[in-house]
Amino acid sequence: MIYLALGRICHDCTSTIIKYLVSILIVFLQASIWAEDLDYEPVLPMGLDVSEYIVPNDNPMTDSKVEIGRLLFFDTRLSLDGTVSCAFCHSPRFAFTDGLKVSKGIKSQSGNRSAPTIVNRAFSDAQFWDGRAESLEAQVTGPMTNPIEMGMPSLEYVTEVVAGIRGYRVLFKKVFDREVNIEDIARAMASFERTILSGNAPYDRFQAGDTDAISESAKRGLKLFEDKARCNQCHSGPNFTDEKYHNVGVDWDGNTVDLGRYLVTGQAADIGAFKTPTLREIDLTGPYMHDGSLATLEETIEFYDKGGNRNPFLDVEMARPTRSLDMMLAMFEDKTNTSTELTPDEELAKLNLTSQDKVDLVNFLKALGGEGWQHIEPPDSFPE
């Protein structure tokens, strides 16, 4: 009986030692893969401007740093209950959005804004619909401690979780030459997000001289985009955004209003203003607007065709009404009062698009779907 007990003990010890040695070997192999850490050289698809590609001086991109960022981006262990990763709201399946009206987080809680795409965010400093994060590095940590999104109690706790995983400790030591910390977690994830690009769309090839790259309808849509429809007043440049904030009247026809950029700046001019999103991959990133209230491109064009929704802070590009602020606020609060007629110069600036115009605009917008992000997939495995 004693010999049998000793045999079982020895067998258990051997199994434990083997498992330990295997885990050490896995960590060693992970580190050896990244033995030579090369600078990451972004290859920008046609149509994007390398001079506008933002990489901070204190966070140069390397292949290994990008790979750590990819692991963290898809790792659900960065959420309190282990169910939500960054990719939960920014999925490659939906061109790095989630296809929902408003995003969901842990315990299926719903937020109050739609998830904007991460595509081409390397071309902007300020992030989020309201621009509250001054960089991608600042943006990536925000959802981690949001009680609705990933629910972590603190960034210190996030660091503890990541540092508690042997594989990550080895990788961070190799790439950053120091222990795991939240700043390097953010640097790695931001570096990965800067690789999510879209260009070389049919529109880009058309602009480069390929006259057959887009349809005749899309060509008419491009002319409308730059002229009658006035889309390029805000959707300008290679990334089709001016990176500014505008009030176009979204949700001012309801009972509550999201104050948008105002919550960041406290400036009255920013009430109801939100950042102009890129139109790259727009066909894949609906629903649209900060509240996801417009389900399709057709609905979105109808919204702009009518001139948006009248409100006291309507952007000048949408033809701000000429009445005083107090008068407009009173009109907004008393929606049942229809006795006061607007003068012609107070009417919203309607676009007066025809049915064919609207079809042509949609076809042009679909021609902004490109390439540069489709190869990105979740990791087959994560550090242990």
What does this structure look like?
Helix content is 36%, strand content 1%. By secondary structure, it is mainly alpha-helical. The protein folds into three domains: 33 residues; 155 residues, Cytochrome Bc1 Complex, Chain D, domain 2; 165 residues, Cytochrome c-like domain (Cytochrome Bc1 Complex, Chain D, domain 2, Orthogonal Bundle). The protein is globular. It has a two-stranded antiparallel ribbon with strand order 1-2. Helix 9 crosses helix 13 and helix 11 crosses helix 13. The protein contains 13 helices and two strands, in the order αααααααααβαβααα.
Morphology call: globular
CATH fold name of the largest domain, please? Answer: Cytochrome Bc1 Complex, Chain D, domain 2
Termini separation: 38 Å
User: What's the alpha carbon Rg, rounded to whole Å?
Assistant: 25 Å
Beta-strand percentage?
under 5%
In sequence order, what are the helices and strands, one letter per element? HHHHHHHHHEHEHHH
CATH 2nd-level architecture of the largest domain = Orthogonal Bundle
The total of beta strands comes to 2
Category from helices, strands and their pairing = mainly alpha
The helix tally amounts to 13
Placed side by side, the strands forming the largest sheet appear as 1-2
Task: Give the averaged pLDDT, no decimals.
Answer: 89
CATH superfamily membership of the largest domain, which one? Cytochrome c-like domain
Q: Which CATH C-level class of the largest domain is it?
A: Mainly Alpha
